[in-house]
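User: My advisor, Dr. K., asked me to get a structural model of this assembly before our group meeting. I'm new to this, so sorry if the format is off. These are the inputs:
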Amino acid sequence: MTPIPAPPIAWNALLPILVLAGTAMLVLLADLLPPRESKQHLGALALAGIIAALVIALVRWGTDVCGFRDMVRLDGYALFFDIVIAYAAALVVLLSMDYLRRRGAESGEYYALVLFAACGMMLLASAGDLIIVFLGIELMSLSLYVLAGLFKSRRQSSEASMKYFLLGVFASAFLLYGIALLFGAAGSTNFERVAAAAARNPHDTLLLIGVALLLVGFGFKISSVPFHMWAPDVYEGAPTSVTALIATGSKAAAFAALIRFLTTALRPLQPDWTALLWILAALSMTVGNVVAIAQTNLKRMLAYSSIAHVGYMLVGLVAGGPQGTSAILFYLFAYVFTTAGTFGVLTLCERTGGTPEPDGDGAVDVREYAGLGRRSPALAFALTFFLLSLVGIPPLAGFFGKFYLFGAAVRAGYVWLAVIAVLNSAVAAYYYLRVVVYMYMREPEGAAATLAPSFAGGLALAIAFIGIVLLGVMPAPFVELAQVAVAPLLR
Amino acid sequence: MSFLFAGVVAAALLGIPHLLAPRRLTPVKMEPFECGKDPIEIAEGRFPMKFSTVGILFILFDIEMIFIWPWAVMYLQLGWFGFLEMLVFLAVLMLGFLYIVRKGGLEWE
Amino acid sequence: MGGVGEERRSLPPTSNDPVGLNAYLILAALVFSVGLAGVLTRRNAIGILLGIELMLNAVNINLAAFSRFGGDLTGVVFALFTIAITVAEMGVGLALVIAIFRARRTVEADRLDLLKG
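Assistant: The format is fine. Below is the predicted structure of the whole assembly, which you can bring to the meeting.
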């Protein structure tokens, strides 16, 4: 009976994730202490954990550690996404602290679940093995399913949660089946070994079916057409702060894993998946933007617009190479700030929703934003600013994001795709600017109170604001960061 | 040796309550399955929601076996490292249990 | 399972196995299809959950079979993780069903129509 030697544990490779997981458990424990009147201290604790993870990611920039039989890899690419995810989680926690108290749904679990979701997202960003991809996706999704149903007494919330859950688990089953077939074809779940197997025998039937099923699963998680059906319902029904997390963090993390998987494990199959993603990109952009025009509920509109943004990011993946891939990273960075900011304004405006019934969601209908420009100029200005960045007006972050993405597509020879993308951006301007028109040029129906954001909410908006200005005014250093980040993938 | 030990533990677990615990027999307790439910009932009958809550919590703690069982088969070879790792795992699990108890997840009334 | 050397990860050869790898793959595909059919046709949320459970367990058959015939233990370890995660999923799912039932008195998926998808 020979003793089995203890495997080496690469603590370094998991450091940000461990910090977040530890904080999450601390939050749970602190929630068990005799109740206080408010749970703000739990939010502050969660925020401290996220900032610690962010600082670790920033300090470790430039290092590259592998651990656990190359299952987890904390390289520049993972660190870049860790920073993006930490920003998204921090903004969401800041926005929630006031929002939850107003909606009477304060709970310690909320912050713990946000932290666990962020753990899953960071795990996805550093995944070097399909097992880790699956674990990360499940940790992230399970937390988000529960978060979406947080307002238990609100029917839309539990319904959104149920739909998200059923479709999410359904997608996970496809993803898992794909992973199993890929494992059978390659004999390993490690990205490098899958790449070797794919290079040996690129058109193995088992491998191709596995890849197709995996892409279906990923398609659900990033909500690209035709796997987008859940997004509008979930975005509408979930608490707005949770919607912000689903729209930013979960999307960034799923893209992180997808990009790494496609560019490292499936590089031998690049021509095949490029053709497939071309179609998905064009469909996502067009369907997302066209359907968004018809929406009057702002959360639904933003859901469809987020589907369109997924389409833009897929353009970068189609273009490929260092330019296309780094453009996605830059775009995601800008997108996280912009979207978190937009949903942030929405959470702050829900305070005085015009609908008095308990089931109501507060101000989410575009008509309720009429006259916001006069009622609370600061919020209206912020929302206008974020929407303009989503449209892609120079010199805001959204403009440079689109510029680099579409530029990469043109340079890689996908001119038609770039043309479709630009036309779509023009369509998108219509429904974003309609909100602005309502805020400044329409009179409100009935009396509406003025709004004053709380300190935490205001801070979140200010961070998002500064982020967008910074990315817009001097994009070059951030593009360089993104290029450094994708370098290890494209070796 | 280990069989003997297991036998002693099992006998003790069965025997000690007989010696120490008070015996109050009620009709409910005399039923073959003492879980608060009539043993013979229409299959489509209703039962309280509380059962489902306890059921869900039971599955969650039941499944930890899937990690303990492979460990238990190999634990001598795994040595102290494996032992410590299992302790950490169980500690996290107990954290969850503590959470359930303090949040009142197991309160029946 | 915690072995570091490659030789520890391989299983004994399986030449005397009466049924081949394909039999397991076909079985898994069938179970997956049964689950898929259940998900698509059932109206009751619990029924849909059962279908999803079948789909996920079909994957476990695949993983175990590939592991056995490919001689790599990764699949078996993966299956253990899958089982644990599946149970966590079902825990969340059933809890959501209870939450919905308390608010709406129904678990029929068709009646969940407040949000028009």
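One thing worth pointing out at the meeting: Chain B has three helices and no strands.

User: Perfect, thanks a lot.
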